[in-house]
Design a protein that fits this description.
The structure is a single chain. This protein is an alpha/beta fold. The chain has a single domain, classed as TIM Barrel (Alpha-Beta Barrel). It has eleven helices and eight strands. The chain has an eight-stranded parallel beta sheet. Helix 3 links the parallel strand 3 and strand 4. The longest helix is centred in the C-terminal third of the chain and has 19 residues.
């Protein structure tokens, strides 16, 4: 973490978990533990149907609400989809874009991710843009090439004045939900690569201001070590974000005065 230049953000990705009633119970407990943190921002990215309940539950504390996806068009005949303006109107602040599960199960391409980034920025949302490699790609030695391509594709056409609104999350696909975790050195190496790619595109001042999270099985046991790395500015937390004690421990690891 380096708070001199950028914000530390811990974001929970609930995926397809928790009903609205379960959301209220969970967040009522969570905000008692992390609702007044000072040194990092806390976000919960909940299913669409839980967003109104989450916003009500968190209206008097600093925890922000995010969505897990959006459609790239403003409106239209897209049954079952949700637009950026719909999310913004509700009061959502963040939205996850390009998560590996969206890429794998729903065929999202780099081009579509870019369209969604533009839709989010145009609506005033902060996109959390996910990039990462599979185990096969890492073993083939193409991690660097792939990450650079994903970053450049996601940022295509994004004006420099909107760059500071973007958050990146490095999520090695081989470490999501598997219990495996990249070493702190591996995580920092790729986060540094993301920053270096942004530096080449937009200069050092923009690059050092961008929050880059790690998103591969960060948990209560490894959060301190991962967050101690200079280019790891937070976490995109999956399974551990569904348990108040675990998520609290990760937030506490990030909520340290430097």
């Amino acid at each position: 973490m380096n708070r001199r230049y950028r914000k530390t953000i811990i974001a929970g990705n609930w995926k397809m978990n928790k009903t609205a009633s379960e959301t209220k119970v969970f967040l009522d407990e969570l905000k008692g533990h992390v609702g007044r943190v000072k040194w990092c921002e806390v976000v919960v990215c909940v299913p669409y149907v839980d967003i109104p309940m989450a916003l009500r539950a968190l209206k008097d504390c600093r925890i922000s609400v995010g969505a897990q996806n959006l459609h790239h068009e403003e409106r239209g005949a897209y049954t079952g989809e949700v637009s950026a303006e719909m999310l913004k109107d509700l009061g959502v602040k963040y939205v996850i874009i390009g998560h590996s599960e969206r890429r794998q199960y729903f065929g999202e391409t780099d081009s579509l991710v870019n369209k969604k980034v533009h839709a989010a920025l145009d609506a005033g949302l902060r996109p959390i843009v996910c990039v990462g490699e599979s185990l096969e790609q890492r073993q083939a030695g193409i991690t660097e090439e792939l990450i650079v391509l994903q970053v450049k594709a996601a940022l295509a056409g994004v004006p420099v004045e909107k760059m500071r609104q973007i958050v990146f999350a490095y999520e090695p696909i081989w470490a999501i939900g598997t219990g495996q975790t990249a070493t702190s050195e591996q995580a920092n190496e790729v986060c540094n690569l993301i920053r270096a790619t942004i530096r080449k595109m937009h200069g050092a001042r923009i690059a050092r201001a961008i929050t880059i999270q790690y998103g591969g099985s960060m948990n209560a046991g490894n959060a301190y070590e991962l967050l101690a790395q200079p280019d790891v500015d937070g976490g995109l937390i999956g399974g551990a974000s569904l348990k108040v004690p675990d998520f609290t421990a990760i937030v506490n690891a990030a909520n340290q005065e430097q």
